Structures are given as structure tokens and as C-alpha cells.
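Field log, afternoon session.

UNIT: design team B
ACTIVITY: writing a sequence onto a fixed backbone
BACKBONE:
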């Protein structure tokens, strides 16, 4: 599975947990866990909400594929 998002890393950097994010978004812990492990991806609207909750640019939640 390709790493597409950096959600797990950003949560650690911000000192937040997946459980906190799930509660803030009204999602299940299981869903957020799958996002963090890159087994599924959040949609763009959800990524926008996450970026605002974590006070980061939406680009910071994505892996840069230009290498």
C-alpha cells in the first residue's frame, strides 16, 4: 500500500491522537485508524477539515510525490 497521506505523522507532531480526531470529525476510531495506516483515504472535504483542526496547510497532510 502506497503512503499517500501523512496524517499519522502530523498527529504526532501536533500531540493529538486518532481518537481525538475521530471525535472532532464525528467519525469512528476505526476509520481514522485506516486513514493513518493509508489503507483508505479521506476525501478532500475531510482533508480540509482535518487541516483546519490541526492548524496546518492541507499540503502538509499529503506525501510529496515529486522526488
Amino acid at each position: 500500500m502506497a503512503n499517500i497521506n501523512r496524517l499519522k505523522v502530523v498527529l504526532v507532531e501536533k500531540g493529538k491522537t486518532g481518537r481525538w480526531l475521530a471525535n472532532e470529525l464525528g467519525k469512528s476510531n476505526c476509520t481514522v485508524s485506516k486513514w493513518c495506516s493509508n489503507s483508505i483515504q479521506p476525501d478532500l472535504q475531510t482533508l480540509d477539515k482535518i487541516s483546519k483542526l490541526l492548524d496546518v496547510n492541507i499540503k502538509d497532510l499529503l506525501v510529496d510525490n515529486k522526488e
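LOG NOTE: Helices lie at 7-14, 18-25, 29-36, 44-54.
NEXT ACTIVITY: expression trials, pending approval
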